[in-house]
């Protein structure tokens, strides 16, 4: 964009941003809530470029990581009951209570990987004799794509199990109980929602900056947050004006509103958060897998919930998602748990904090 000077000489600007940040830095714990931000921060070693007084933490920003055990288990149960389950690649590898979708596939269940809901609809059209269940995960960033496909019309053998998450209610919950001084907000969510949903930070007295996904975007956000912290300010600022408008994307918001109702939703690490998810509207009840196949999965899901209660929890992914620990605090990190042998969801997704730390922190 010609309107964003940061793009004209990003290298030089990054050097200046690091100088600015490093000049009498104010000690601060800054949390981002986005897996893509974590990937940029880890990949470019941004933590090592910042003065030691500034700590950057990762919050619950990776859709694979926040999908709860129950939703993964439900998809596995449905696949083992003879339905075709389709979802994104990372979801196949996330361990459920006893196994993953990948394991279920190895045992003969029909589990397929797709890159989008459109791929899933194509499978349904090509296999009219099968019942296709799409496990839909994601935040505001990708939900409009799902909404658009539904509005285009779904085959009668296509069902959706929604595990879609809305960011603002999770933020509201997070800031009740967290030792953080400022936040970096996810630019791609704000592209859809605008900046208003991040007003909770401001109201609770936290500075917040909406940031893009390049290394210079992150550094700019940190510099702007430092300025606010030094001035004692607490407001929303937009460091990603080349993509984010204050009002968001009205067309995408309307599509989501046409297709989904807001509902309570379970988040790994945060529990059930009121009004933090989407379910299909009543008019799409013929495609609602959670309701139509409830009798198929409810008993086995209850059994798995009991198994989980008795299981010793070794994975501290839930603690990491709330910024209370970093991956190296987990005794399994880089030992039993690696990207090729993931024990928890934070190691599966390349947006998960454990995965990013494994891949890029080579100390
Ligand atoms: Fe869980 Fe593995 Fe991360 Fe440990 S390293 S918290 S086991 S995902």
Note down, in words, how this protein is organized.
It contains 19 helices and eleven strands. With 363 residues, it is α/β, with parallel strands linked by helices. It has two domains: 1-315, 3-Layer(aba) Sandwich (Rossmann fold); 317-360, no CATH class. Helix 13 (215-231) links the parallel strand 8 and strand 9 (236-238). Helix 2 (35-43) packs parallel to helix 19 and helix 9 (143-152) packs across helix 14 (250-259). The longest helix is centred in the middle third of the chain and has 17 residues, at 215-231. It starts with 9 loop residues before the first helix and ends with a helix. The relative contact order is 0.16. The chain binds iron/sulfur cluster. Residues 315-317, 320, 327, 330, 332-333, 337, 343-344, 346-347, 354 line the site of iron/sulfur cluster.
Cα-based radius of gyration, to the nearest Å: 21 Å
For this structure, the CATH topology of the largest domain is Rossmann fold
Biggest sheet, spatial arrangement of strands: 4-3-5-6-11-10
Name the CATH superfamily assignment of the largest domain: HypD, alpha/beta domain 2
SS summary, helix count = 19
- Ligand species: iron/sulfur cluster
Termini separation comes to: 37 Å
CATH C-level class of the largest domain is Alpha Beta
User: Helix coverage percent of residues?
Assistant: 40-55%
**Total DSSP E strands:** 11
Largest sheet geometry: 6 strands, mixed
Q: Give the name of the CATH architecture of the largest domain.
A: 3-Layer(aba) Sandwich
SSE string, helix = H, strand = E? HEHHEHHEHHEHEHEHEHHEHEHEEHHHHH
Helix and strand content put the structural class at alpha/beta
Q: What is the percentage of strand-forming residues?
A: 15-25%
Low-confidence stretches: none
Summed up, the domain count is 2
Give the CA-based shape.
globular
Mean pLDDT: 92
């Amino acid at each position: 964009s010609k309107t964003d000077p940061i793009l004209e000489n990003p290298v030089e600007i990054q050097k200046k941003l690091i100088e600015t940040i490093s000049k009498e830095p104010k000690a601060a714990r800054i949390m981002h809530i986005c897996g893509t931000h974590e990937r940029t921060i880890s990949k470019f070693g941004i933590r090592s470029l910042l003065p030691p007084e500034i700590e950057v933490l990762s919050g619950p920003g990776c859709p694979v990581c926040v999908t709860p055990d129950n939703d993964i288990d439900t998809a596995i149960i449905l696949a083992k009951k003879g339905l075709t389950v389709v979802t994104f690649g990372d979801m196949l590898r996330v361990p459920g209570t006893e196994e993953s979708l990948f394991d279920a596939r190895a045992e003969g269940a029909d589990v397929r990987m797709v890159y989008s809901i459109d791929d899933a609809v194509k499978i349904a059209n090509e296999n009219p004799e099968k019942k296709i269940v799409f496990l839909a995960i994601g935040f505001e960033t990708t939900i409009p794509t799902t909404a658009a496909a539904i509005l285009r019309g779904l085959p009668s053998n296509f069902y959706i199990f929604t595990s879609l998450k809305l960011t603002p209610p999770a933020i509201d919950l997070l800031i009740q109980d967290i030792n953080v001084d400022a936040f970096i907000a996810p630019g791609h969510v704000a592209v859809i929602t605008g900046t208003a949903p991040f007003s909770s930070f401001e109201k609770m007295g936290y500075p917040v900056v909406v940031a893009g996904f390049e290394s210079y975007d992150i550094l700019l956000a940190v510099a702007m947050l430092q300025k606010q912290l030094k001035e004692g300010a607490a407001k929303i600022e937009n460091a990603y004006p080349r993509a984010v408008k204050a009002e968001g994307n009205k067309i995408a918001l309307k599509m989501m509103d046409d297709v989904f109702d807001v509902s309570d939703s379970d988040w790994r690490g945060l529990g059930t958060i009121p009004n933090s998810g989407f379910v299909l509207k009543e008019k799409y009840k013929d495609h609602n897998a959670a309701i139509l196949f409830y009798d198929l999965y409810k008993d086995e899901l209850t059994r798995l919930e009991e198994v989980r209660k008795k299981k010793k929890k070794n994975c501290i992914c839930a603690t990491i998602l709330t910024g209370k620990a970093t991956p190296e605090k987990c005794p399994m990190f880089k030992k039993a748990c690696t990207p090729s042998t993931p024990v928890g969801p934070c190691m599966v997704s390349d947006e998960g904090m454990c995965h990013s730390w494994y891949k890029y922190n080579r100390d």
